[in-house]
Automatic annotation (TrEMBL):
Top-level taxon: Eukaryota
Signal peptide interval: none
Biased composition (Basic residues): 1-11
Name of protein: Transposase
Biased composition (Basic and acidic residues): 12-27
Region (Disordered) location: 1-27
Length: 288
């Protein structure tokens, strides 16, 4: 009933008539707590899923999450991209070079030590198509960065980086200086800044260490990406770690679960992948 019609009918109250529907004000402490609990339970939930679970409008949730909870959604996992022609040619040339090196010296792979870093999280769900999660920039989730080096006989070195720190060139150099100061081996790693810094290349050249660089977008042709990291995380998926210390204490058990012969099979498979990449003319040859 309009206010004019109400007054004509001698209505005194100016309050609206009761009606069904969604409350006008949904940004309450109770609703904020509901959304907080749901995001803690599943950091990868979407605004639409939150609306379906709570009955609160997506618009209101879209204000509560960044303004009240101070969260923003960021990618949690690397997702391969469509390759440009230049990137395909780079992958093709790299694989052809490594195949040629194998023909020249069938035993050269025995000299390779491959190194990389990966994040281990407090909780990594077993299956989830969405790989972005709500994070508080001031209070990041429980996780730590794990630096690993392996060869065709197994793991040769692994260590966790200090809390809140990613790999930097001084730290990476410290690991190499501590472990390998003699020549005669080949270092395989990607072209991340700490790996290709002048400080690093000078040290490796001084010690006669050959470098086998991995260009970008090579997850299907990098032993750590197609073998080691998936093996480790398959054991860790679905497990909850309350603190960073829990991760450091328990996750190395995943390394011990990998048999030594699996590393040799990995390096043999690596050689096959060079050929598959060449046959695919540098494109990805398997689905992710």
């Amino acid at each position: 009933m309009s206010k004019l019609r109400g007054f004509k009918a001698r209505r005194i109250s100016i309050e609206d008539d009761p009606r069904q529907g969604r409350p006008k004000f949904q940004r309450t402490d109770e609703n904020v707590q509901k959304i907080t609990d749901l995001i803690k339970e599943n950091p990868r939930t979407t605004l639409l899923e939150l609306e379906q679970d709570t009955g609160i409008s997506e618009t209101t949730i879209g204000r509560i999450v960044p303004e009240d909870l101070k969260l923003k959604k960021t990618p949690a996992k690397f997702i391969p991209r469509f390759l440009t022609n230049e990137q395909k040619l780079c992958r093709l040339a790299t694989c052809e070079d490594m195949m040629e090196m194998t023909r020249t010296d069938p035993e050269w792979k025995d000299k390779i030590i491959t190194g990389d870093e990966t994040w281990v999280y407090g909780y990594d769900p077993e299956t989830k198509p969405q790989f972005a999660e709500w994070r508080d920039p001031k209070n990041p989730e429980t996780r730590c960065c794990w630096s690993l080096f392996s060869e065709n006989k197994g793991i040769v070195h692994h260590e966790y980086l200090p809390a809140g720190q990613t790999v930097i060139k001084e730290m990476y150099l410290g690991i190499l200086r501590q472990k390998w100061t003699n020549g005669g081996w080949i270092l395989h790693h990607d072209n991340a800044r700490p790996h290709t810094a002048h400080l690093m290349t000078s040290f490796l050249a001084k010690n006669g260490t050959q470098i086998l660089l991995q260009p970008p977008y090579f997850p299907d042709i990098a032993p750590n990406d197609f073998f080691l990291f998936p093996k480790l995380k398959a054991v860790l998926k679905g497990r909850h770690f309350d603190t960073r210390d829990d991760i450091i204490e328990k996750s190395p058990l995943a390394l011990k679960s990998i048999p030594k012969e699996a590393y040799k099979n990995c390096f043999d498979n690596w050689e096959k992948r060079w050929r598959w990449c060449v046959e695919a003319r540098g494109d990805y040859f398997e689905k992710f």
